[in-house]
Amino acid sequence: MSVLELRGVSRTHGSGANVVQALHNVSLRVSPGELIAVMGPSGSGKSTLLNLAGGLDAADAGSVHVDGHDLSRMSRKELARIRRTSVGYVFQNLNLIPSLTAAENITLPLELDGVSLRKARPLALNALSEVDLDGFADRFPDEMSGGQQQRVAIARALIAQRRLVLADEPTGALDSATGEAVLRLLRTKVDEGAAGVLVTHEARHAAWADRVIFLRDGSIVDSSGPLPSADSLLTARA
Amino acid sequence: MSIRHGLLALLERGSRYGYQLRAEFEESTGGTWPLNVGQVYTTLGRLERDGLVRGMPESDGGQRPYEITDAGRAELALWFATPLSQADRPRDELAIKLALAITTPGVDVRAVVQTQRSATMRSLQEFTKLKQAGGELPWLLVLEAMIFQCEAESRWLDHCESALVRHRPTVTPVTQHIDERVTADERA
User: Fold this and answer.
1) CA-nearest residue of chain B to A234?
2) In the structure, what pLDDT confidence band is assigned to residue A31 with cuts at 50, 70 and 90?
3) What residue segments make up the domains of chain A, in order of their start?
4) For testing the chain B interface, which of A176, A204, A211, A216 should be mutated: the one with the most B CBs within 10 Å?
5) Which residues does chain B have within 8 Å of residue A203's beta carbon, measured at their own beta carbons?
6) Partner residue facing B118 (CB), from A216, A224, A237
7) Is B146 helix (H, G, I), strand (E, B) or coil?
């Protein structure tokens, strides 16, 4: 069964003359152990797709299913529960808690899962090491650079066992080596059985995915599947 | 790069037989440039003719090793010291293909762009998988070069797509027929 399924999803932003069709009739399935990359120009609907997949936004038409649950039929409380227990978010806005150290920020989702602090801390230290932040465990967010904070946010998003991992330009402020470490981490998480969706405008990052879909004007125009026949390239001739 | 410089670089490590050179050449390029042993011996023959390598006495097994000469070392040093010029590289078939697609009636250029981008992305995925598998530094650098090339091509295709969206074809004046020009010239 798919961990994430979008069925004919449409989403419109704004109203009247300012109406923008952010997504139009998009269908997509992501299975356990599968990483999908979403590419497309600015305004093509990439982030809208991710927000809908994570239950942070609601579709105008169609339905979004996470682990078989139709998000549109869930109460706010149920939605909050599934967001917390099933979905890991690596978003551009970091949302680190300023009064907690790097390690405390990272152990937070584990503690919410009922893992004791004694067990959680070594996991956090390991996660920090994986994003090349050894020795930063007891620093507060304002004692770290933007790139370092981003890596803490990534470690936090990937530390807990989540069925679905959603990443929006997770390597934005990072140099290429650290960015690659983050992708390796995401790839490992997916290889362990999670389903992943990675929004990126960088082809070399999208290449870490099993499948790449291209969005244009809110619709999927292509995915990295088999080559089309030569005839289909000459449609305008007919 | 020419095969001759590749072979000179391998011979700089020490004398080699043709079969050894072929194996080491393929190994150092990660198999991206397969050679047959005939190409190796033809190239060695030319290098020997030009005084850049020297054939040594045959071994008991009937194999003849080659060694690099001082002139060969000088040629190799010159090759490493000389940057590649864009003019030395093959023409970019993709750029030419797109330029022709835009000017050929009835071609869906955006579909051509998209098809190429998917194919480029598939190559990029394959190279990335190979990179994840790891390997020796020379091979990883060759792989990285191919990854960067795919990435550049993908970015260029993105640029082409947005340029196509903005593109408003200008009305090209109808080209005067040659006969009419001749008549006009005669009149003048």
Assistant:
1) B107
2) very high
3) 4-224
4) A204
5) 120-121, 124, 150-151, 154-155
6) A224
7) helix
Q: Please identify which residue in the block is written with the tokens 């169609």.
A: A62
Question: Span B63-73, mean pLDDT?
Answer: 94
DSSP reduced 3-state for A9: strand
Number of H helices, E strands in chain A: 7, 10
- In sequence order, which ranges of chain B are alpha helices (DSSP H)? 3-11, 18-28, 37-49, 70-81, 93-103, 109-133, 137-166, 178-187
Size of interface A-B (CB pairs under 8 A): 69
- Decide: A182 and A192 in contact? Cβ < 8 Å: no
Where on the phi/psi map is residue A217: left (φ > 0), alpha (ψ -120 to 50), or beta? left
8 Å CB contact between A23 and A76? no
The yes or no reply on domain A4-224 and CATH 3.40.50.2300 is: no
pLDDT of residue A148: 86
Q: State percent of chain A over pLDDT 70.
A: 92
ipTM, two decimals, is: 0.72
**Contact status, residue B136 vs residue B22, Cβ threshold 8 Å:** no
Cβ distance of B118 and A236 shorter than 8 Å: no
CA distance readout (Å), A105 to A52, A54, A152:
25, 21, 8
Q: Whole-angstrom Cα distance, residue A115 to residue B83?
A: 58
Residue B185 above 90 pLDDT? no
Nearest to A54 by CA among A185, A200, A164, A188: A164
Select the residue of B106, B151, B161 nearest A203 (Cβ to Cβ): B151
* Euclidean distance between CA atoms A51 and A41, whole angstroms: 17
CA distance B141 to B139: 5
Which has the closest alpha carbon to A126: A110, A115, A117, A137?
A137
Is the Cβ of B116 closer than 8 Å to some Cβ of chain A?
no
Residues of B in contact with A221 (CB under 8 A): 114
What whole-number distance in Å separates Cα of residue B21 and Cα of residue B183? 66
- CA B157 – CA A199 distance, rounded (Å): 18
Q: Which two tokens stand for residue A151?
A: 């890596």
For chain B, domain boundaries = 3-87, 90-166
Query: Selecting from 3.30.450.20, 1.10.10.10, 1.10.260.40, 3.30.70.3040, what CATH number does the domain B3-87 have?
Result: 1.10.10.10
